[in-house]
Design a protein that fits this description.
The chain is of the alpha+beta class. A hairpin with a 2-residue loop joins β20 and β21. The longest helix is centred in the middle third of the chain and has 21 residues. The chain is globular and about 60 Å long.
Length: 421
């Protein structure tokens, strides 16, 4: 089989490494891929949002199956365009990807169908939004409506911070058109849990839960990032909570999308908060999370391609989705200065014996050397019987990887270890 994977980050590298376990896979193309992915797939210099060129390439190469993983091409209709050419795909069509593409849409969906989430108000007028934050409960959460690389969410501790966030998004266009509309919502407290789920629009099969670490600094301080590390499973996600989520959130969401004529087929990401009043949805993503994928997929014991094809074919109920009962930890190594300003072009050295456990995100190949080319450079994942052992093993690997101005958090998994006591 010839497989096409759209995207070029650590998440895509994790998907590609998993595909290589399937003996029927003969060729894997990554568009655009990156310098690290080039070891495991043929990288083609076509951007993930260049839908026309992606489709042309897929047709020309007679691709048997395509996987679209990033949010932008999904929202832009990459799956629609590929399917119109007869190429089977994993990923939601644009009409379903709106569940991530518009936070206003997803919040209204939850409100309409009684899916538990934070109280909220939506604004497309700056003055009205500024007026509202004069009286709303503080802290409050300000979200850009559209896609913003995981950075369009501000937790405002004061009214001044809320106003500043609104002006930045709506007036200064910090996130372009994504900030034309904003959602201001109730600040929830409790442990956060990420749950990725396979769904064919009828059946929902959740993957093992995980815990992301979004802030740049130890102790969850500093700016929001795309994610600085993850562990799986999440100790706060008990069997009882999982049952409630399936009954109150997962199935109702799929049914709501069906009723709206927006059947979701692919990987649906549930960002959850376990509050005093039970689990609530913080956000939906229309695709695999990054870096959650880098701890979840290594624990998958079933064949990923078979599962994805079952999703596409609507036969997920007949497909086994089995995960290891071991623990996983992924530590992200970034360029110092991320997520604001950072240098590029530093040589990366990765010992040969840990290459299979490294997922490369921001790197390029130049004169056969792997060089840094992004904020989050790579992730290192280890699997062990206990979480503590997985964490320790990941950090030992991190110490063996070198590039100038490397930065990583020192406390990935620390909160999870406290929860296990």
């Amino acid at each position: 089989m010839k497989i096409l994977v759209v995207g070029g980050g650590g998440r895509e590298h994790a998907v590609i490494k998993k595909f290589k376990e399937n003996k029927e896979v003969e060729e894997i193309f990554a568009l655009p891929g990156n310098g690290g992915i080039a070891k495991d797939a043929k990288c083609v210099d076509i951007g993930a949002t260049d839908i026309e060129k992606i489709v042309d390439f897929a047709v020309k190469e007679s691709i048997d199956y395509a996987v679209v993983t990033p949010d932008d091409p999904l929202v832009l209709g990459c799956v629609n365009a590929l399917e119109e050419k007869g190429i089977p795909c994993f990923g939601p069509r644009a009409e379903a990807a709106i569940i991530e593409g518009s936070k206003a849409f997803s919040k209204e969906l939850m409100k309409k169908y009684g899916i538990p989430t934070a109280e909220f108000r939506t604004f497309d007028n700056l003055e009205k939004a500024l007026s509202y934050v004069e009286t709303c409960p503080i802290p409050t959460v300000v979200k850009a409506d559209g896609l913003a690389l995981g950075k369009g969410v501000i937790i405002a501790q004061t009214r001044e911070e809320a106003k500043s966030a609104l002006i930045s998004m709506m007036q200064d266009k910090a996130f372009g058109k994504s900030g034309d509309t904003v959602v201001i919502e109730e600040f929830l407290t409790g442990p956060e849990v990420s749950v990725l789920a396979f769904t064919d629009g009828k059946t929902v099969k959740p993957m093992v839960s995980s815990m992301d670490h979004k802030r740049i600094g130890d102790g969850d301080k500093g700016l929001n990032t795309g994610g600085m590390g993850t562990i799986a499973p999440n100790p706060y996600y008990s069997e009882a909570i999982a049952e409630r989520c399936m009954k109150e959130i997962f199935i109702p969401t799929i049914e709501a999308m069906n009723k709206e004529g927006r059947t979701f087929k692919g990987c649906l990401y549930f960002g959850l908060m376990i509050t005093e009043n039970g689990p609530k949805v913080i956000e939906y993503n229309c695709r695999f999370g990054d870096p959650e994928t880098q701890v979840v997929l290594p624990l998958l014991e079933s064949d990923l391609l078979e599962i994805m094809q079952a999703v596409t074919n609507g036969s997920l109920d007949e497909c086994e989705v089995k995960f290891s009962d071991k623990k996983a930890c992924c530590v992200i190594m970034a360029s110092r200065g991320y997520p604001v300003k950072y240098g590029k072009g530093y040589e990366i050295t990765i010992p040969e014996d840990i290459q299979d456990r490294v997922f490369v995100a921001g790197a390029k190949l130049e004169n056969e050397k792997l060089l840094t080319n992004g904020g989050r450079v790579l992730g290192v994942t280890e699997i062990r019987k206990t979480l503590r052992e997985a964490i320790e093993a990941s950090y030992k690997d991190v110490e063996r990887i070198n590039f100038e101005n490397a930065y990583f958090r020192k406390d990935i998994g620390a909160k999870a270890l406290l929860a296990e006591v």
